[in-house]
Amino acid sequence: ARFLLLLSGMIWLWMTSMAWASDERVAQVWEEGTVIQDVEVSPDQRWVGFIEEDTREVRILDTWAWDVHDFAPCSGSSPAGLGPMELDGILTWFVGCADGAVVWLEESDDGFDISEDAVAVDVDEILLLVVGESDVLVIGDPGDGGNPQVHHIDPDTLEADSDSGYPSTLGYSGITDAVA
C-alpha cells in the first residue's frame, strides 16, 4: 500500500509540474562546446562565473536575466582561477592570470567593469586563485623547481603578502584544486 501511495503521489507531482511547464521558457542554449576550467558562484547566488579555456575568457552568467557577460581580463595570458567577494557592498570577481597578475571585475550598472590596476604576485605562474570571505589566496609556481607557494592578497589594501606568514611553501609538489 505504501508503494502505491508513493507512486500515485509521484505521478501527481509529475503531472502538475507538466501543467505548469511552458515551451516559451528556455533557460539557456549555447551553440558551442568548450572546456570549462573553473566555476564559482557569487555569495547571493545570482551570478555564476566560469573560465572558458579555449577562448581564455571569463564569463559571468546572470541567473536572473540569463545574460552572459564576457571578459578577457588577462592581457597576453590565460585566466588561472576566479572567485567572488563582496567589498563595501560591491560584488567583485578576482581573477588570477597565469602570468602572475591578479585583476578584478567590479559590478556596475552595466554589468561589470575590469580594473585598470593589477596586483603583481611574485610567482613564475599562478596555478590557482581561491577567494574566501575575507581573503584572496594565490597558489603559484615559484619558478625555482620547488613546491608551489601560497600568497595572500589583502582585499582592502590590494597588497600581496603584507600579512606575516606569506608566502608559505606547500609540503607537496602538485595541486589541482583548493577551497578557502
Short summary:
With 180 residues, this protein is mainly beta. 11% of the residues lie in helices and 43% in strands.
Report on the structure:
- With 180 residues, the protein is mainly β.
- The chain is built from 1 helix and 14 strands.
- The protein has one helix spanning 2-20; strands at 36-41, 47-52, 57-62, 67-71, 79-87, 90-97, 101-108, 111-114, 119-120, 125-131, 136-141, 149-154, 159-160, 168-169.
- The radius of gyration is 21 Å and the shape is globular.
- The relative contact order is 0.11.
- The model is unreliable at 1-21 (pLDDT under 50).
Please describe the topology of this protein.
Elements: H1 2-20, E1 36-41, E2 47-52, E3 57-62, E4 67-71, E5 79-87, E6 90-97, E7 101-108, E8 111-114, E9 119-120, E10 125-131, E11 136-141, E12 149-154, E13 159-160, E14 168-169
Give keywords.
single chain, 180 residues, 5-stranded antiparallel sheet, 1 helix, disordered N terminus
What portion of the residues fall into strands of 2 or more residues? 35-45%
Q: Cα-atom Rg, whole angstroms?
A: 21 Å
The first-to-last residue Cα distance is: 48 Å
Total number of strands: 14
Helical coverage, percent range: 10-25%
Q: Average pLDDT, to the nearest integer?
A: 83
- Stretches where pLDDT is under 50 for at least 5 consecutive residues are 1-21
Q: What is the helix/strand order? A: HEEEEEEEEEEEEEE
User: Main beta sheet, described?
Assistant: 5 strands, antiparallel
Global morphology:
globular
Number of helices: 1
Structural class: mainly beta
